[in-house]
């Protein structure tokens, strides 16, 4: 195995698998949303809404946490999603698009612009009262949907566009996490928060002293940190992001030693006489186990976890979330709901705010020579990516559930989210398709 093949196996192939999951998960996510809307407006409507109100309790005596199914999904199941976001973020900071200023300036600036302008536009429609609390809804980008639309265009889309959109969406997720932490957190129980801090110290210490067992981090992170945050009033998904940053991101064997030891093991395996049966011999099995352990040592726990959890998040966590939260009642007053200040604020916040914020930030960064467009990208690509950034869906629905308690207002927000996501997907698709043609004609 040469160096290029090793790079493919350890880095490029996992990235390709992730991108593939993001593409197909967008279809699954969209299907789940459609099913939710159909159920919410069918004869099964009462059953659909009552299902999410079923209560579950965990704990004992005075240490009991009791929530309905919606909260367990939004606070618990979505914590897995945010945990993966945290893993992605740490990887990008260490060795990805965010590991130096020159590479990260453009996606960071674009993401910030794409968060601030949508919030301002929403507040123009909802300057006061309870609806004002929804300003965080149009700040989000749904990475699964956005990448899914991008990959429908095939190989003609430059890889730089995919990388730029991914980095932008990850930074956008950071912003969403911070908004949730600081602005959508209920009253804080500082005793529970202190307990969570103790568990966090345990996780950081374990990383420092070289503990690499992911099961250990799972037990302490979920049974300790996440549960403490859940009981503290700080949104529990924040604990998932913090826990992700404690996962080790280093290998225990470098590339040179890996080549050497892998060669020795393969040599040993080659010398073992086969038994000419479907099963391997005990000696062969021992060498294979050593090769597996060696390969594991050449990978970081962070990357192993990230790629192991992506299918779970893509095909279970996010579809269940969409099925639970995307159910919009299309009543007789659907038009009135669609033109309500909340729905309009969300719709124009995403469609106009995201596009103006992202393209405006890119223009400013280029004008002042802070950053340049990546190779293969033109202005129309940036415009198309900005529209794909306006697909809020998952994160926007999540923030809407945190921002409002009134069912009617939540429904209005959902209508704005769904309408803007559909429009943004279609416009983004055709703009990038046009950008690809322009680039091909220029070449």
Which features characterize this protein?
two-stranded antiparallel sheet; globular; 17 helices; Na+/H+ antiporter like fold; 443 residues
Describe this protein's structure:
This protein is 74% helix and 3% strand. The longest helix has 38 residues, at 3-40. The chain has a two-stranded antiparallel ribbon. The protein is mainly alpha-helical and 443 residues long. It has a single domain (3-185, 235-251, 299-442), classed as Up-down Bundle (Na+/H+ antiporter like fold), CATH 1.20.1530.10.
In short:
The chain is an all-alpha fold. Helix content is 74%, strand content 3%. It has a single domain (3-185, 235-251, 299-442), classed as Na+/H+ antiporter like fold (Up-down Bundle), CATH 1.20.1530.10.
Set out the fold topology:
Layout: H1 3-40, H2 45-51, E1 55-60, E2 63-68, H3 69-95, H4 101-125, H5 143-152, H6 159-183, H7 190-208, H8 214-232, H9 236-244, H10 255-271, H11 282-297, H12 301-325, H13 334-338, H14 341-367, H15 379-389, H16 393-403, H17 407-442
Antiparallel strand pairs: 1-2
Mean pLDDT: 86
Low-confidence runs (pLDDT<50, min 5 residues)? none
Radius of gyration: 24 Å
Q: What is the H level of CATH, i.e. the homologous superfamily?
A: Na+/H+ antiporter like domain
Q: Number of DSSP helices?
A: 17
């Amino acid at each position: 195995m040469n160096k290029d093949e090793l790079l493919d196996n350890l880095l490029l192939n996992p990235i390709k698998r992730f991108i593939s999951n993001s593409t197909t998960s967008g279809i699954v996510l969209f299907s789940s949303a459609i099913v939710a809307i159909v159920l919410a407006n069918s004869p099964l409507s009462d059953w659909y809404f009552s299902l999410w109100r079923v209560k579950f309790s965990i704990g004992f005596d005075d240490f009991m946490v009791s929530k309905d199914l919606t909260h367990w999904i939004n606070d618990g199941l979505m914590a897995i999603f945010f945990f993966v976001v945290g893993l992605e973020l740490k990887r990008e900071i260490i060795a990805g698009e965010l590991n130096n200023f020159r590479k990260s300036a453009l996606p960071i600036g674009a993401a910030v612009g794409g968060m601030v302008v949508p919030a301002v536009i929403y507040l123009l429609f909802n300057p006061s009262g309870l609806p004002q609390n929804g300003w965080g809804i149009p700040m989000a980008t749904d990475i699964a949907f956005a990448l899914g639309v991008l990959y429908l265009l095939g190989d003609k889309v430059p890889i730089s566009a995919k990388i730029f959109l991914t980095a932008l969406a990850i930074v956008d997720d950071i912003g969403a996490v911070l908004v949730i932490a600081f602005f959508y957190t209920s009253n804080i129980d500082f005793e529970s928060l202190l307990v969570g801090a103790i568990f966090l110290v345990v996780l950081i210490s374990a990383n420092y002293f070289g503990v690499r067992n992911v099961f250990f981090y799972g037990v302490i992170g979920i049974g300790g940190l996440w549960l403490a945050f859940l009981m503290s009033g700080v949104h529990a998904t924040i604990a998932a992001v913090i826990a992700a940053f404690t996962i080790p991101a280093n290998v225990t064997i470098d590339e040179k030693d890996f080549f050497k030891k892998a060669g020795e093991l393969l040599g040993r395996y080659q010398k073992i006489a086969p038994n000419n049966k479907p099963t391997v011999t005990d000696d062969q099995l021992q060498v294979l186990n050593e090769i597996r352990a060696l390969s594991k040592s050449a990978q970081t726990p962070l990357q192993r976890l990230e790629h192991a959890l992506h299918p779970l998040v893509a095909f279970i966590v996010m579809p269940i979330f969409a099925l639970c939260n995307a159910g919009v009642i299309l009543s007789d007053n659907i038009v009135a709901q669609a033109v309500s200040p909340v729905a309009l604020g969300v719709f124009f916040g995403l469609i106009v705010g995201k596009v103006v914020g992202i393209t405006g930030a890119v223009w400013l960064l280029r004008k002042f020579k802070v950053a340049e467009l990546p190779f293969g990208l033109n202005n129309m690509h940036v415009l198309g990516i900005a529209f794909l950034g306006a697909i809020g869906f998952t994160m926007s629905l999540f923030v809407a559930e945190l921002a409002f308690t009134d069912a009617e207002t939540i429904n209005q927000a959902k209508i704005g989210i769904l309408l803007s996501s559909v429009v943004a997907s279609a416009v983004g698709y055709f703009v990038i398709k046009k950008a690809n043609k322009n680039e091909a004609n220029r070449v």
